[in-house]
Amino acid sequence: MASSCCTPVPVIAISLGLLLLASISSVLSESMGNNTFRPRKELLKSRRMRALLKRLNKPSAKTIQSPDGDIIDCVPSHLQPAFDHPRLKGLKPMDPPERPRGHRFTDPLVDESFQLWRISGESCPDGTIPVRRTNEEDVLRATSVKKFGRKLAARLRRDSESSSHEHAVGYVVGDQYYGAKASLNVWAPSVTSPTEFSLSQIWVISGSFGHDLNTIEAGWQVSPQLYGDNAPRFFTYWTTDAYQTTGCYNLLCSGFIQTNNRIAIGAAISPTSTYNGGQFDISLLVWKDPNHGNWWLEFGSGLLVGYWPSFLFSHLAEHASMVQFGGEIVNTQPSGSHTSTQMGSGHFAHEGFGKASYFRNVQVVDWDNSLIPVQNLRVLADHPDCYDVQGGSNSVWGNYFYYGGPGRNVRCP
């Protein structure tokens, strides 16, 4: 009996031991699988990053070190990233187009020293363009290598109620527009989170606010994720499918063709406006070349920056149906409350000149390639307790508006 009573014990022990060994084996196998998978994933990411950096950082004729740490490469014009596009390979930048009638042309040389990298007086040689060098740290700050240089799917004014993107803008809609022009003052707003941004810009828009939205955008922005600091920077953007898969900032994909050797898109702007002090503003003009259909960008009073080829777009290959001016921020609701990221100066519109941000001399280009004052400029703020806008007109500034705000405050929790 003793023998028979004792036989189940080792059987149970053996069974438990086998189960334990199987469990350990499973854990080890899973661990080894993960360890194998992770290096493969990291290796693939590293390869993609190296390929991206090689594609963006072209051979340069000269390198300039900016006081803020940026490296500016003087890249031969025909080697810039835009000419990687299959429809542009082997081509060169086009000659400047006819400017819109009513455009007041002055000496563009006064506009050339608005960026930090030009403080020393250096510029890129003729036949080259200045390109801000992209490094690994820039790419690693993005959510992925694939999404580097692109906006997250942003909704414009009409859909912003359900979006983290908030606006305070002036806009015109209901006609055919062939360009837009305005002067806007530059600030250095505080941005709360690295994944947020604050910008002021012109939007040239066509298509619906669905997946076929076309936009051309230019202005200044503070974007820690994109640039690694909190400096306001001159930027451009474009998309043909509502920011889904097409388009990018600056020269970070095949798109915008730069023709200027003295302006670096993506480089820091200096000086900036100060509260109750000196105001520094920039003028931007975007217009459609009536002969070739390309959309050109001019800075200041005659300094051509470059152009977006018409074939990049669907609806904008014809004309714009809406033009928008103003500010935009991203609100990620840190700590569950509204962000404290500032728009513009960080002060509300009612504070006026020297304190609030502004757009002045707001104009559009009509079908006849003429610059005309905006008719029926409408203003709208998504969340006026956080950021607001107030419009007006006078004989000096033409159509204008003040806009901006601090974000989180007692009325904007």
TrEMBL record:
Residues 95-105 have a biased composition (Basic and acidic residues). PROSITE patterns: NEPROSIN_PEP_CD. Residues 159-413 form the Neprosin PEP catalytic domain. The keyword Signal applies. Keywords: Signal. Residues 85-105 are annotated as: Disordered. The keyword Transcription regulation does not apply. Residues 1-29 form the signal peptide. PANTHER family: OS01G0547133 PROTEIN, PROTEIN, PUTATIVE (DUF239)-RELATED-RELATED. This is Uncharacterized protein LOC105046251. The gene is LOC105046251.
